[in-house]
Automatic annotation (TrEMBL):
InterPro entries: 6-PGluconate_DH-like_C_sf, DUF2520, NAD(P)-bd_dom_sf, Shikm_DH/Glu-tRNA_Rdtase, TM1727-like_C_sf
Pfam families per UniProt: DUF2520, Shikimate_DH
Keyword annotations from UniProtKB, A to Z: NADP
Gene3D superfamilies: NAD(P)-binding Rossmann-like Domain, ProC-like, C-terminal domain
Residues of the Quinate/shikimate 5-dehydrogenase/glutamyl-tRNA reductase domain: 2-70
Source organism: Apibacter mensalis
Lineage: Bacteria, Pseudomonadati, Bacteroidota, Flavobacteriia, Flavobacteriales
Protein name: Predicted oxidoreductase, contains short-chain dehydrogenase (SDR) and DUF2520 domains
DUF2520 domain residues: 124-249
Amino acid sequence: MHKNVVILGAGNVAYHITRALLENTINVVQIFNRTLDKAQNFSEDYNINYTDKISEIVKADIYIICTSDKAISEISYYVPFEDCLVVHTSGSIPLSALKGKYRKGIFYPLQTFSRKRALEYDKIPFFIEAENKEDENILLSLAKRISDEAYVVDSEKRLQIHMSGVWVNNFTNHLFYIANEICRNQDISFEILKPLIKETFEKINDDITPYDAQTGPAKRNDNIVIQKHLSILESDSNLYQLYSLLTNSILKTYHDKL
Ligand SMILES: NC(=O)c1ccc[n+]([C@@H]2O[C@H](COP(=O)([O-])OP(=O)(O)OC[C@H]3O[C@@H](n4cnc5c(N)ncnc54)[C@H](OP(=O)(O)O)[C@@H]3O)[C@@H](O)[C@H]2O)c1
């Protein structure tokens, strides 16, 4: 696959997509970003041309918009060419957000990207959408150069996938944060929870379904323990409500009661 790629944006996803493409010998010819030093920051490591000027955006086969969701439509006007494929990397923004006269597509990687974290790119599922079969195949080939997992899904399904990701990653991480705060306030090391966190994920990684993996007071319908926990949380209405909501959801799932 001999395609030249331009990356628009220089945040977490731009950094990792650029690395993943280069590691798989896809030619990234330029990084465009409104803040020049962020583009410069990693472009120089790979000897890639970079710019913050729309007038300097070079001709390429594929443009991958890796800006914040809110900026996708605006940035999509910046691509000054028509004979090219422009994609974005968001899980929740429809294809119609891309506004130019070029061909349009989606190149959504389902992973949490932080610049400082190394990732196994070949394990990241990519979700592809395009306006025609030919572009679908181009994007599938591009994704398969990076990863073993690439799928074609429409925008509605992608939104459901994105929301599932919010449940397993964003919400789970927020619960880690809450537990960390509770430990910190009680002078308890968060480290003691790490074997539990690890086993929680390893159970799911093995053949146990999330339904079967559940344990704890709500699963056991143990109202005495639930009330003890709620009494600790009485002074913090946010945590009290959150604990009650999650407990009620588990009770509803296993005991069909609220
Ligand atoms: N992070 C994830 O885990 C993840 C996973 C899958 C998909 N995605 C998707 O990937 C995309 C990028 O996410 P990210 O996490 O990489 O974002 P990020 O690290 O916050 O980077 C945001 C980028 O967007 C640019 N930007 C923001 N507002 C802009 C505007 N009004 N005009 C021009 N440029 C603007 C920023 O430019 P400056 O440097 O100038 O601020 C920066 O390059 C989003 O669509 C997101 O939904 C993210």
